[in-house]
Amino acid sequence: NELHQVAHNGRVYIFINRRCNQMKLLHWEAGGFVLYHKRLEQGTFAFPTHSKAQISWSDLVLMVEGIQVIKSNQKRRFSLK
User: Fold this and answer.
1) 22-29 and 12-16: which strand pairing?
2) Among the listed residues 48, 54, 53, 51, the one whose alpha carbon sits nearest the alpha carbon of residue 69
3) Which of 12, 59, 68, 79 could form a disulfide with 55 if both were Cys (CB 3.0 to 4.6 A apart)?
């Protein structure tokens, strides 16, 4: 209710604690809710830099796996021999 969303709409809701070392995913499947919980022994979860409210499925998978994508503004340089 606080998010003003219907919990069984097929979306995955992500909850991360203040220390960013625990994540819970809440998802509705046929028959009831599924709650996934992951706690990191080292490090923290990295949020995607482009969006805080909604993220893509691929960004969620990368975040759960602990992979952070960093975009570089540097141009590639090629050397000709």
Assistant:
1) antiparallel
2) 48
3) 59
Mean pLDDT by 10 residues, the chain (81 residues): 72 87 90 91 74 74 75 65 58
Domain chopping of the chain, boundaries: 12-65
**Segment holding 76, helix H or strand E:** none
pTM to 2 decimal places: 0.66
Contacts of 37 (CB under 8 A, 6+ apart): 22, 23, 24, 25
CA distances from 51 to 14, 33, 63 (A): 13, 25, 13
Residue 50: predicted pLDDT: 54
Radius of gyration of the chain measured on its C-alpha atoms: 17
